[in-house]
Amino acid sequence: MKKNIFYNIILSLSNVIFPLISFPYAARILGPNGIGEAQFIFSYAQYFALFAALGIPVYGIKEIAKANNDPVATKSTFFSLSALFFITSIIASALYLASILLIPYFEPQQNIYIIAGILVLFSFTYTDWFYAGKGAFKTITVRSVIVKALALGLLFLFVKTPSDLYNYLGILIFTILGNQVFSFIAICYESKGIPYQLEYKKHIKPLLFIFGATAASSMYTILDTVLLGFLSNATAVGYYTAAIKFIKLTLPFVTSVGAVFIPVLSKHFADKDFDSVQQNLKSSFYFIVALTVPLTIGTIIIAPEIVAIFSGEKFENSIVPMQIMSILPLIIGFGHLFAFQILIPSDKSKEVFIAMIVGLIISVGLNFIFTPIYQEVGASIICIITEITVTVIYFYYTHKLFSFRYPWKFLMQSFIACAAFIPIAVACKSVTQNLYIYTCLCITCCVAVYIAIQLFVFKNIFLTSYFRPTKTIGDD
């Protein structure tokens, strides 16, 4: 499992490094309005693609993990789920096309929306769930890095002026589909000659619960951008995108270990090995807190510098939304722990669905009330309220259904350790006024002090385990 964690961290690094290069470049060329327009078109198509997924990217990991030692069962599961995925992709594409043709809002740029529809039509080629279920994170990582590198090259070649907006959108689409289509074809080729039987019925009921959760989740993870575009304007979407884009760069790190644990935890739950589940959950908890708490506090403190470096001076209005949403990694980290490492592997998809529906109602309701008035700031506050609500409901169900224990003391110690960031930031500001030097100096000092406090003051076992190999994270 260590190799899978390593490759998943490499994948997470690529998901951070490439946007750190590509987005600042694109933002400075296209500006808030151009970025907002491209992101709105992309998000609208991606929203239908998520509906087409029918929950398969989550459900499929568990089912492939169960059949992993049986090539026939593995192939049957893959093609059964892919066939369902193909059907839903066709249905979602028809609905997407109908909305583009019938809603007057889309008429001025109808052609580009239709082109973006290939995201929906080919969404069934998404296969990361298959490789994750098999534990083949190396394959996912290598192919993803290659496609991102190609997309980065295309960006520098074809996006040079504000009029290259549609080239930028095309590159965004390539980033998604380039890896998907190639991987799908590769699986089909590798599976040839293995007999299989399509089995639809046994998957439909559990998929419906996960689909409901996925649909509700997409309402407030993607539709927030879509609603902001409908209820406000492209510029507000640009400011919001610049803020949340940086915040979401950290999320792959938060969920990377969890993604590796999902197939493992599914097996432990199936075997009723709750002691092993407890140990894995404790390790995951330590990782989430150790990473997200300093990210949250650090982002709040240096948000002005991050926006200036990441997006440019034109995106000054992104500072407050970024500070508001800085807590997202922590909230989503806990949500991922409770939902995707406990409820989903233990076949409690219904509970996840309920939490998502509540989140959907809160998000849509509040967006229609506050977004037209407060625009990107209102959308940011609503995003946080929604995620907190959903995570609290997840925790309620995990606490009700299981008796797992979590090292909450580590959470408080991490916040205390991060209190040192404030005087560090003030001291660094007195040393230099250079934007880049200040940011690098501040981050380096904060990380060093945070680790030192955890190691030598609180003696936290999550960190000391790396310096004392004989001590395990699960030891008390």
Précis, in short:
The protein is mostly helical. It has helices at 2-53, 56-66, 71-102, 110-116, 118-121, 128-133, 137-158, 165-190, 201-221, 223-231, 234-249, 251-270, 274-310, 319-324, 328-343, 349-401, 408-418, 421-431, 435-457, 461-467.
Structure description:
With 476 residues, the chain is mainly α. The protein has one domain. It has helices spanning 2-53, 56-66, 71-102, 110-116, 118-121, 128-133, 137-158, 165-190, 201-221, 223-231, 234-249, 251-270, 274-310, 319-324, 328-343, 349-401, 408-418, 421-431, 435-457, 461-467. The two termini are 23 Å apart.
Largest sheet: none
- The quaternary state of the protein chains shown equals single chain
Q: Evaluate the radius of gyration.
A: 22 Å
Strand tally is: 0
Helical proportion, percent range: over 70%
User: Helices and strands, in N-to-C order?
Assistant: HHHHHHHHHHHHHHHHHHHH
What percentage of amino acids are in beta strands? under 5%
SS-derived structural category: mainly alpha
Overall tally of domains: 1
Termini separation comes to 23 Å
Provide the residue-averaged pLDDT. Answer: 85
